[in-house]
Structures are given as structure tokens and as C-alpha cells.
């Protein structure tokens, strides 16, 4: 078990450094610094509110599922950050490149990634054609968190998992209850 854990940890650090090393590239840096905000609190709540206010029929149902998912996943995310107080990579890994004034709370799991997948997954479930646009956006937000030195790959993968899981629960159990 210990050898496996050590091997996975080394692999994760290599993946992290492989992504973070491009921090100095101006165009990539601009892209990831911009898109990362789509997973933030203001952007995800704003997107859900706009969808709730201005959509009808199945897209409105998808927005309700997104709202439920976004609301219910934040409690487990914050609990996990307390239970598993994993320091952010820029604090641990020498040579990590990161923005000025980075986040100081714990890294596991990625809240930005969880939030963006909470919002986009119901939209994809109701309208699969949207996956062409929304999956690359969600993955870019997750990748941005690694690129910016704020999360390990496993933080992002667990964030994707939580976002998708709470979306599936909202889609299958909460939305049908209301419609």
C-alpha cells in the first residue's frame, strides 16, 4: 500500500510540474488566468441565476438541477477541506509557479472544478449537444487550477467527480420531484 501511494504521489507531482511549467507562456497564462474564474463563486452563481431567470422548458429544468447541484456540493467540499487539510502545491513543491496573492486555504478538493461541473453537467444531461462547448470549458477550468499552482491533479479529479455526482443526484432525484 505504501509503495503504491508513493508511486501515485510521484506521478501526480510529475503531472503537476508538467502542466505548471508553462506558466511563463503569455497566451496560455492569459487563457488560464481568465477561464479559471468561470469556476469561481461569482461566475457559477451568476450563470445559474441568469439561466433560472431567462430560460424555459427543459433548459429551465437543467438550470434548476444546476442550482441544486451547486448548492448541495459546497458543504461536502468544505468538509473535505477541513478533514483532509492538504496544503496547496505552491506551498509544498519547490519551483512551483503561481500568481501573486494565491489562495491560502486547503487544496483538496478543487472547489472551482466542483462548481463548474455542477453547473455544466445538468445542462449536458438535458441537452447533450452542449457537451461540445461545455466539457472543454469545464476541463479548462480544472486544468487552470493545476496550471496556476493551486491544485494537484487529484484535487481536480475529485472536484469533477463531486460536481458530476451532485448533478446526477439533482437531475434524477430533485428535479423530477418538482416537475
Overall description:
The protein has 179 residues and is mostly helical. It is 74% helix and 0% strand. It has helices at residues 2-20, 26-35, 41-54, 57-83, 89-92, 111-126, 131-147, 153-178. Helix 3 packs antiparallel against helix 4 (57-83), helix 4 runs antiparallel to helix 6 and helix 7 (131-147) packs antiparallel against helix 8 (153-178). The radius of gyration is 17 Å and the shape is globular.
Q: Briefly, what is this?
A:
This is Phosphatase PAP2 family protein. Helix content is 74%, strand content 0%. It is built from 8 helices and no strands.
Strand % is under 5%
How far apart are the first and last residues' alpha carbons, in Å? Answer: 47 Å
Oligomer: single chain
Main β sheet profile: none
Number of helices: 8
Number of strands: 0
Mean pLDDT: 93
Low-pLDDT segments, ≥5 res: none
| Spatial shape | globular
* Class by alpha and beta content: mainly alpha
From the alpha carbons, calculate the radius of gyration and give it in angstroms.
17 Å
**Element order: H for helix, E for strand:** HHHHHHHH
Helical content (DSSP H or I, runs of 4+): over 70%
Keywords: Cell membrane, Hydrolase, Membrane, Transmembrane, Transmembrane helix
Organism: Terrilactibacillus laevilacticus
InterPro entries: PAP2/HPO, PAP2/HPO_sf
Transmembrane segments: 30-54, 115-144, 156-174
